Amino acid sequence: MSGFRSGRVLILGLFALLVLGGFAAGNPTILSADNLSSMAVFAVELGIIAFGQGLVIAGGDGAIDLSVGAMSALAQILAALFIMRGLPWPAGVCAGVLAGAAMGGCNAAAITRFRIPPIIATLGTMFAFTGLALIASGGNTIDLTAAPARFLAMGQGSVLGVPFQILCLYLPLLGLLVLIQHRSRFGRALYLIGTNATAAWLAGIHVNRLRATTYVLSGALSGLAGVIAAARLGTATPDGVPEANLISIAIVVLGGASIFGGDGSPVGTAIATLAIAVVNYGLNYNDFNPTLQAGMMGLILVLVVLVENLVRGRLPRLIAAARSKRKMA
């Protein structure tokens, strides 16, 4: 398969609207333009990381990347160090993205060359990259408030009233990934190896090379997300986006991808990211216990899949039964 589950996406969209309505009933100010903008911005970094995770998972063979948060952290630390030491900010941004790609290459080599299971390889590199980020930063945050204004505009600026990172980074990236995954030879080959790697190999596709590419892309996207986060906050932190390691996997699955590979869509991932962002921002805005927020992520995952299964399974049978009763009457 190479598309997204429209039923899942519809359920997620309705869920996000219902949750937002519930939060608004308790505190209407959450619907202000500033809060809605903040909610969308809140989702950008996590959404970009989830795009990379979706590519990895689509490749199949139990592939996941548990190091995405750590790659994001190390990339933003390196970019911040280069920028604050006088490197032009575009070069600093490129350094962060390339560092992420290099870290993804380390994951790719461990998994495709040395045959280490993905969960073990990326768990190990997660600790390694986190340690390197702490060493490079001295365990401290790096103040970027004196960084060039154009760099900070990546996370704090706006274009036509829309946050820069949404209009100029996230949405173009979403469109590009849709074309790559659904309209290119790379995308078709990726879904094929995720569905049946043996058939893909017999068809002449370099399975390991393609899977390695997904890890490199995941690293590059994690690096980009880290740089955007640093620009938005005006600081680079060695812990980066620690929750992204697992939440990005949940987002991809919520968006309709199969954890076994060969399925999924960046559109579904984007809708799932929006749903998670609404819940997270709403809970933070209303000062809910952080422990409750973690529990909500698991509850959402279970409920959405359950509702979809009911809609796709029992509901059609109930409709068919009702029609047969009408005919008999």
Automatic annotation (TrEMBL):
**One Pfam entry name:** BPD_transp_2
One GO cellular component this record assigns the protein to is: plasma membrane
**Keyword Transport on entry:** yes
Chief subcellular location equals membrane
Q: Where are the transmembrane segments?
A: 40-59, 66-83, 89-112, 119-139, 159-180, 189-207, 213-234, 246-279, 291-311
The record, for CDD domains, names:
TM_PBP1_transp_AraH_like
Write one Gene Ontology MF term: transmembrane transporter activity
Report keywords, A-Z: Cell inner membrane, Cell membrane, Membrane, Transmembrane, Transmembrane helix, Transport
Membrane topology per the entry is:
Multi-pass membrane protein
Compartment annotation: Cell membrane
Q: What does this protein do?
A: Part of the ABC transporter complex LsrABCD involved in autoinducer 2 (AI-2) import. Probably responsible for the translocation of the substrate across the membrane.
- Its quaternary structure? The complex is composed of two ATP-binding proteins (LsrA), two transmembrane proteins (LsrC and LsrD) and a solute-binding protein (LsrB).
Protein name per the record: Autoinducer 2 import system permease protein LsrD
Source organism of this protein record = Nguyenibacter vanlangensis
